[in-house]
Design brief:
By secondary structure, this protein is of the alpha/beta class. It is built from nine helices and seven strands, in the order ααβααβββαβαβααβα. Helix 5 links the parallel strand 4 and strand 5.
Length: 202
């Protein structure tokens, strides 16, 4: 069973890569997605789609995901002509899932290392949109997941703490002194936490 799922997933990836040259969701891509949703039907499932063809057919996409109780992953990323468009509204009531990849358009496709594309630090103002969305989603769903994927130089950690502050959630844990000193946005938010020198964490 696992091998079948893996092969199906690999085939789906090949189809989705090909979608970069298409203007609509191909029947093959849709069929493979259905196969995966069926294979994981007994688990909570979230689906991240990247190509604009899925949002151009938003009615069909939402109907397909809803039929399996799958959450549509909402993403923030640099927007290009073929990038997916979303309104950030939850499509199911079981859970909400959002991922922030950063907005480093200059290095998204052209970079020395793949992690360079995530070299982006959201400002407090930019994060406000997502914290407000998360607050609204909490009223509609049972559970919410908000992930920062701009992990270059620990920027995801900084933005995660900033989001927690905007959401009024407690900021716990200990943070390396070097990290706190590197990001001014971080300093006031973790001032109540004990700043631990990097040497003591090694």
């Amino acid at each position: 069973m696992v091998e079948v799922v893996i092969r199906s997933f690999a085939n789906l990836l090949r189809i989705l890569v090909g979608l970069g040259r298409l203007e609509e969701v191909s029947p093959q891509a849709r069929d493979y997605l259905v196969q995966l949703l069926r294979a994981f039907a007994e688990y909570p499932t979230a689906v991240e789609l990247r190509h604009r063809s899925w949002s151009d057919s938003i009615g069909d996409t939402v109907s397909l995901l809803n039929a399996f109780g799958a959450a549509w992953v909402h993403i923030d990323e640099p927007k290009f002509r073929f990038s997916i468009r979303q309104n950030y509204l939850p499509n199911v009531t079981s859970f909400y899932y959002m991922r922030l990849h950063g907005r480093n358009a200059a290095q998204w496709w052209k970079h020395d290392k793949s992690e360079d594309r995530y070299n982006y630090l959201y400002t407090a103002g930019e994060l406000q949109e997502f914290s407000e969305t998360a607050k609204a989603a909490r009223e509609l769903v049972k559970k919410s997941y908000l992930y920062t994927n701009n992990h270059f130089s620990s920027k995801s950690v900084v933005n995660a703490v900033m989001l927690k502050a905007q959401l009024g959630q407690p900021i716990e844990g200990e943070y390396p002194e070097a990290l706190v000193e590197t990001y001014p946005e971080f300093q006031a938010l973790v001032s109540a936490s004990r700043k631990v020198p990097v040497s003591k964490l090694l």
